[in-house]
Each structure stands twice: as structure tokens, then as C-alpha cells.
Design brief:
This protein is mainly α and 78 residues long. The protein has helices spanning 6-25, 39-65, and strands at 35-36, 73-74. The chain has two helices and two strands; from the N terminus they run αβαβ. A two-stranded parallel sheet has the order 1-2. The longest helix has 27 residues, at 39-65.
Length: 78
């Protein structure tokens, strides 16, 4: 059960959006993420560990690098 702190209140709408993507959209699209964990799982972990601003920025950078000219492989949330 999640403790309702200010950090959790701020990230909860974004966590909901990522979970919605994971359940309602991702299963119907081809797997394209070049990283492990996937970009959506990375986003959830970054938000929960680092909060809305730092975790959100980490997620944006990760998603932007998930392209044929970007990186690939194992890349956990620091």
C-alpha cells in the first residue's frame, strides 16, 4: 500500500498514465524498446525513486534515447 506523501500525490497522475499505457496500449503495439527494463517500467521506477521533477527528467532523457541511433541494453534507474 502506498503512503500518501506529497511526493506520491504529485507522481500519482503520471503513474496512472504509464500504467494505462502498459495495460491498454502497449500489448497492442510491437515491442520496440531497446532497453531493459523497458522505458515505461524505467519511468515508473524513476518517478517513485526520485520524484516528479528529477525522475520525470530521467524518463524523458531515457525515452528520447530509445531510438536506432541511441543506446541499448541493461540500463537500470540509478
Amino acid at each position: 500500500m502506498m503512503k500518501w506523501t506529497l511526493k506520491n500525490i504529485l507522481i500519482s497522475p503520471f503513474v496512472f498514465l504509464v500504467r494505462f499505457y502498459q495495460v491498454a496500449i502497449s500489448p497492442y503495439t510491437p515491442a520496440a524498446c531497446r532497453y531493459s527494463p523497458t522505458c515505461s517500467q524505467y519511468t515508473l521506477e524513476a518517478l517513485k525513486k526520485h520524484g516528479l521533477f528529477k525522475g520525470g527528467w530521467m524518463a524523458v532523457k531515457r525515452i528520447a534515447s530509445c531510438n536506432p541511433w541511441g543506446g541499448s541494453g541493461y540500463d537500470p534507474v540509478p
